[in-house]
Amino acid sequence: MSKAWLRISKRAVVALIAIWILLPSRRASLLAQDSSPHWVPFVAKLVEEQNHTVGSLPVRITAEGLYVRNSQGASYNRRVLSTRSATPLRGALDVAFLHDRASHTTYIIDFVKKTIKQQSDPSGNPDFALEPTSRADFDKRHAADIFLGKQMVSGVECEGYRVADPHHKGKYRGEEWFAPSLNFMAVQYRGRLPSGGKISTMLKDIEAGKEPDARFFRLPEGFKWVK
Q1: Could you report the per-residue pLDDT of 113-170, keeping only the tens digit for each?
Q2: Mean pLDDT over residues 83-107, rounded?
């Protein structure tokens, strides 16, 4: 056996050992990349109802519309409001909220007045985070809430919580159901408003994984910008 052949063999063995050592770390890197959270797009119908009392008169406000989110995390929510009360509802009756997550900006689009208002997202609000909520962060956020179990809501498996009132220790402001498969999106909420009224919100006809039409994420032309 020649010395040259031995040198080649040694090099081959060293190369194989190096590959064997590096492969597990490479596999771990790929697994970490594949398991990183990503935005799950969806298309759904939003239904909301509010019940107030103005003086001695009951006021019922309902809102229905479209709620969508794309794979970049941008969301569009358009609501058409109606009311049942002795006095007419004032303000916008057809309004949309377009949230551009990348720029931390929400655009309020009034289709009645044909206006657009731009707002910056509140600092620290987890609903406007750049990245989806992780399981650990979600559990930490709801550490003070009471877990109600799991159930199907609008065809999606959800986890329910009795949500603690941050301003009143030992009290709860409502019941909320979150879908882990939709980045812990709130699918249903029933609770009370700061004014004392009651509110219920629900997403229906959820099409998980469906990429919404790009036109929802474009601002309408010809609308007036207001402050």
Answers
A1: 999 999 887 656 666 788 899 999 999 999 999 999 999 999 999 999 999 988 888 8
A2: 79
Compute the CA torsion angle 143, 145, 150, 155 (nearest 10 deg).
Answer: -110
Q: How is residue 158 written in tokens?
A: 């959800």
pLDDT tens-digit readout, 161-178:
999 988 888 889 999 999
Identity of the amino acid at 95: V
Topology, domain 42-226: outer membrane lipoprotein receptor (LolB), chain A (2.50.20)
Q: Where in the chain are the domains?
A: 42-226
| Gap between the Cα atoms of 75 and 177, Å rounded | 19
Q: Which one, of 220, 227, 221, 186, lies nearest residue 95 by Cα?
A: 220
What percentage of the chain carries pLDDT values higher than 70? 77
